[in-house]
Amino acid sequence: SVQELAVLIGTTLDRFIHQEQSAFPYATGELSHLLRDIALAGKIINREVNRAGLVDLSGAMGQSNVQGECQQKLDVIANIRFLRALQRGGEVCAIISEEDEGIIYTNNDNGKYVVAIDPLDGSSNIDVNVSIGTIFSIYRRVTPIGTQANMSDFMQGGRKQVAAGYILYGSSTMLVYSTGSGVNAFTYEYSLGEYILSHRNLRCPEDGGIYSINDAYFEQYDPNIQAYLVNSRKRGLTARYIGSLVGDFHRNSLKGGIYLYPATEKAACGKLRLLYECYPLAFLAEQMGGSASDGQQPILDIVPQNYHQRTPFIVGSSKMVGEVVAALKRSV
Ligand code: AHG
Ligand code: MN
Ligand code: MN
Ligand code: MN
């Protein structure tokens, strides 16, 4: 109804950012503009994702990225769209992306922020219409404004993030983010072209009944991880693993659960990347009352060494993560 729409319009992302940011130390508005630039890029990628099958955007590019992964067309398109949106927005001086080896300079040397981004997460699901996402992590630069950014801007560590979030291209498209005072989720209403606040102050249940892990690597996991999985089955937990970290993370945050990508023989440090997958989601998890660990320490306390370093990743309901970490610490 018109009344319902009026209520909805009152809580658009733009209004929310303005309200939230006006009480925020960086009230000069750049972070607000940057969040809007990311939201816009998400709308554009949402459109590409929703018609991938129609305009031959699915499938592989026939080239691989710095990760040694076969890049999907949408990986490259999402990367280009985000880089363009952040370059045009003017608030970001440099970017680290999963899809590029080194720093991408935006020529906005006066920009106060740097962004680390996974432009499209869950690439194996692009062609089969399963949820995929974008993950972003934002830092204030430490190098002087007006100079060219460098590695030190990106090696500040997880607890220096000023904001982080993701866009989930699922049965609905959602933008979920935090600037350090709780997590809020917005559902995209495409007929209005607006993100509408749908989940205010998201909290992750302390415990849950879902575990997410790639069971195919069971034999390669630490015996304590194996014991946790066997015990979870005995306790009647539900296994849900869709191969898109953003989708698994979002569902487990809402319902309670744990996602694990431990070290395997093939991936001795795990598969997931610290800078643009684990740090941002760990930031959100802690903001929702959940937790995130590499098995020995909180993800946010890991000292970063390079742009694409990987880490084992255990994230979700604090009680569940605590149980796994306690078991792994016993094995050290
Ligand atoms: P990306 O598509 O950005 O490379 O990330 C994929 C990640 C994550 O989204 C997912 O949970 C995991 O890879 C799946 O890996 P496996 O296929 O090894 O389980
Ligand atoms: Mn990838
Ligand atoms: Mn990813
Ligand atoms: Mn990716």
TrEMBL record:
Gene3D superfamilies: 3.40.190.80, Fructose-1,6-Bisphosphatase, subunit A, domain 1. Residues 12-199 form the Fructose-1-6-bisphosphatase class I N-terminal domain. Keywords: Carbohydrate metabolism, Cytoplasm, Hydrolase, Magnesium, Metal-binding. It is found in: Cytoplasm. Its EC number is 3.1.3.11. It is an enzyme of class 3 (hydrolase). This is Fructose-1,6-bisphosphatase class 1. PROSITE patterns: FBPASE. Residues 205-328 form the Fructose-1-6-bisphosphatase class 1 C-terminal domain. Binds 2 magnesium ions per subunit. Mg(2+) 1 binds at E98, D118, L120. Its cofactor is Mg(2+). NCBIfam families: PRK09293.1-1.
